[in-house]
Amino acid sequence: MKKLVLLMGLVFLGSEALAFNIVYPKKNDVMINAKSTFFIGSSDAPLTINGQNVPLHPTGAFAYVVPLNNGSNTFVLQSGEQREIFVITKPVIRQTIFKPAAFVPYKETKSFVVTTEGAPLRSTPVDAGINRMAHLQRDIKLQVDGEKDGFFRVVLGKDNYGWISKTNVKLDNYNNIEPALLSGYEYLDSDNYFTFVFHLNKRVPFEMIEGDPFVMKFYNIKDQPENTYIMNFPVKDALSGRKLIGYSGEYQGNDFILKIRKPVITNSWRPLHNIRISIDAGHGGDEIGGVGCLGDKEKDINLSIARYLETELKKRGARVIMTRNGDNYVSLKDRVEIANYGDSVVFLSIHGNALPDGADPNKNRGTSIYYYYSQAKPLADIIMDTITSEIGVPNDKVRQGSLAVVRNTNALSLLIEVSYLINPEDNANLINPEFQKQYAKAIADSLEKYFGK
Ligand SMILES: [Zn+2]
């Protein structure tokens, strides 16, 4: 510590305190492969970059876009006596002609077995995030009839295929492509769930499709049309007209357990009473997340908003679970486990947004909300409406995205990008406790609206 103070003393020796501070690019002499990049930071005196005036927000924050040419680009940042030079290299990449690989059919269908827990079965042979049809557990047997790129084509039924990455499977030693036997299912009643237990003689690929009805499909099943077994669950009738709010499906041995959450009974004067809500403050510990113009860390802003939200929700009678309540690192897997273990009905992950090189931080503002399962979209829409109308935050869209914490939680799960850390206007909001409080209140109001209906 003493050393650091001494070092800082040396830096400041004979000069005034630094007028400007750059938070991005993170260091000088970086390689950036984009048409443009930006300088993000703050200054308390007029600042120029290569002689051009940099507009400063009243907080001192700025985001300044600069074009990049091939090779080395030099930028001189100057404010009064302080002068810093940044060299950014844009690599020259020779254009390669992209030739899509062709599908290679096999003469005979082969049997493979899943080796990775949660391996995505995809609708197309690309790693595209939301083209996931299901997440397959280990030991599920797959019939494969060909390959393309790094993917095997999985036979699901007549003219119905899925794709799985070659890295997630291995050849089944027995190479037994016999369809499985589904001998029946049991229905188990409990307070919170409709539970179905399907008895199979081996693990086969499956799909759960949201809608009314909710469709449960098992593929490669003996004595079923197109080897596909389908169970339709009438959502509206079973849930007394209410919407789907969480489900899960997994194998235990060769039994498949499907759980669909029963409607949450609320009273109209206190709609959040006893509702289990997980709040997930993004990042933490060594993982700081993004950095704002003024140097604020995303992890701290997320936690602050999460705590205001916790207070708001508890006031309204909700049972709140925090995936972290301090500045500590929590893995994505642990966040999911905490939420699922607590049987959360709602899961909200709080984040601050950033942008890649090539984008303009001055032209991006406001909240974006990500859902993965369509059951959560109506809640996302209500939150967006409330935030834009109650506190006037720009609507940066409700979007579908494949984010691990949202995808793996058995709840109405959303990830909320509150605002852009690197937009000077948004940044001023993000670091303002009054804004954080209002934002948390708007989310709590939205949840009340949603459950009060
Ligand atoms: Zn984040």
Structural class: alpha+beta
CATH domain class of the largest domain: Alpha Beta
Kindly estimate the percentage of residues that lie in beta strands according to DSSP: 35-45%
**Rg, alpha carbons:** 26 Å
Separation of termini?
57 Å
Low-confidence parts, pLDDT < 50 over ≥5 residues? Answer: 1-15
Mean pLDDT: 92
Largest sheet features: 6 strands, mixed
State the CATH superfamily name of the largest domain: Zn-dependent exopeptidases
Q: Note the total helix count.
A: 8
Q: Tell me which CATH architecture of the largest domain applies here.
A: 3-Layer(aba) Sandwich
Query: Please, how many domains?
Result: 4
The residue fraction in helices comes out at 10-25%
Total E-strand runs: 28
Instruction: Write down the overall geometry.
Output: flat
Bound molecules: zinc ion
The name of the CATH topology of the largest domain is Aminopeptidase
The side-by-side strand order for the widest beta sheet comes to 24-23-25-28-26-27
Describe the structure.
- 37% of the residues are buried.
- Residues 1-15 have low confidence and may be disordered.
- The protein is of the alpha+beta class.
- It starts with a helix and ends with a helix.
- Helix 3 crosses helix 8 (433-452).
- The longest helix is centred in the last third of the chain and has 20 residues, at 433-452.
- The chain is built from 8 helices and 28 strands.
- Zinc ion (ZN) is lined by residues 282-283, 289, 298, 351.
